[in-house]
Amino acid sequence: MIPRGVQVFVALEPIDMRFSFDRLSGLAREQVGYDARSGALFVFFGRRRDALKILFFDGSGMCQFYKRLDQGTFRLPEAVEGAHHVEIDDATLETLLDGVEVESGPPVRGRASRVH
């Protein structure tokens, strides 16, 4: 799913998950220092860390991937104190998205499990 060798930047400051292409592109520039059309993947977490967005350019336009966990939270990668972002490799991102690096959290009320 994720191209091998692609740069992956994880923003450490939580975002408003309503942000879309333009705001996320601006955050990629401000927090990471790269243009959103650079070919890198930019990962953003919501305040509760139960959802993430990935912004990337596929060569013809901007794309977003959104994932929300039914329970638990995503664990942020370790970073140097005061850092605004951290770079991870594609294998670490795959692991994160597969749920292996998910720390358990209290059950969220009001969200019923759904099977599709």
Radius of gyration: 14 Å
Number of strands: 7
Major β-sheet strand ordering: 4-3-2-1-6
End-to-end C-alpha gap: 21 Å
**Number of helical elements:** 2
Provide the number of structural domains: 1
The averaged pLDDT comes out at: 83
The biggest sheet amounts to: 5 strands, mixed
Q: N-to-C SSE series?
A: EHEEEEEHE
Shape: globular
Structural class: alpha+beta
What does this protein look like?
The chain is an alpha+beta fold and 116 residues long. The chain has one domain. Helices cover 18% and strands 27% of the residues. It is built from 2 helices and 7 strands. The strands form 2 sheets. The protein has a 5-stranded mixed β-sheet with strand order 4-3-2-1-6. Strands 5-7 form a two-stranded antiparallel ribbon. A hairpin with a 4-residue loop joins strand 3 and strand 4. The longest helix is centred in the N-terminal third of the chain and has 12 residues, at 21-32.
What's the helix and strand layout?
Blueprint: E1 8-11, H1 21-32, E2 41-45, E3 51-57, E4 62-68, E5 73-74, E6 85-88, H2 90-98, E7 102-103
Parallel strand pairs: 1-2
Antiparallel strand pairs: 1-6, 2-3, 3-4, 5-7
